[in-house]
Amino acid sequence: MAAAVLSDAQIAALSPRERQQLMTRLARPAQDLLPSTTSFPRLRRRRLTVVIGATVALIPWTVYLGLSLPERHVARNWSLTWVGFDALLLAMFAVTAVLGIMRRQLLVLAAFASGILLVCDAWFDITTAGPGELWLATGSAALLELPIAVLLINSALRLIGLTAARLWLLEPGSRLWQLPLLMAEPSDGAATGS
Q1: Are 125 and 140 spatial neighbours (Cβ–Cβ below 8 Å)?
Q2: Where do the domains of the chain lie?
Q3: Cα distance between residue 184 and residue 191, in whole Å
Q4: Do the beta carbons of residue 78 and residue 99 sit within 8 Å?
Q5: pLDDT digits over 38-81, tens only?
Q6: d(CA 115, CA 94)
Q7: What is the secondary structure of the chain as a DSSP string?
Q8: pLDDT at residue 181, rounded to an integer
Q9: Which residue has the higher pLDDT, 22 or 101?
């Protein structure tokens, strides 16, 4: 049986909603990608349980640390810690640059991770600065680390939004949090935005 193929003119005449519905219907079914459609909901529940459990457990742990940790502490492997962290940051910057040059979707993850690592770097620089070093750490954070982190994170989020809008998954100008998870089936209500 020959399938009807829409012409470019017919596709151009479709409304954004009709294009989104067409793409959803043409998308590869999740059951073709996942090992078992019956195990996917169970796997999702397990992963969400772990994340929610970790979130809940981290609240009392953070309070405990805030009350029990000493103000000062001599750290082992101080140089290794900082050099290792900066090496990780360097590697993430290099991966971000390479993926940007190659125009690959993984750029989104690399840019976001690099930005988060820069925020962590600024935080640790400021909070561990010794006497007379605080002004340098604060200046470095304010003028370099945090602006670059904002640029990287914002770029990653913009790429997600642009890609979603290009694929008719998100209306231009819509908020990124409205973007449904692509693995959600239309029957879940997620693909329709309900």
Answers
A1: yes
A2: 37-69, 80-194
A3: 6
A4: no
A5: 677 788 899 999 999 999 999 999 999 999 999 888 889 999 99
A6: 13
A7: -PPP---HHHHHHS-HHHHHHHHHHHSPPHHHHSS-TTHHHHHHHHHHHHHHHHHHHHHHHHHHHHHHS-S--PPTTHHHHHHHHHHHHHHHHHHHHHHHHHT-TTHHHHHHHHHHHHHHHHHHHHHT--TTTHHHHHHHIIIIIHHHHHHHHHHHHHHHHHHHHHTTSS-TT--GGGPPPTTS-GGGTTTTT-
A8: 79
A9: 101
d(C-alpha 91, C-alpha 80), whole Å: 16
pLDDT band, residue 193 (cuts 50/70/90): very low
Q: Looking at 22-36, 58-72, 80-94, which range is the least confident one?
A: 22-36
The residue type found at 106 is L
What is the pLDDT at residue 184? 55
Tokens found for residue 143: 């003028």
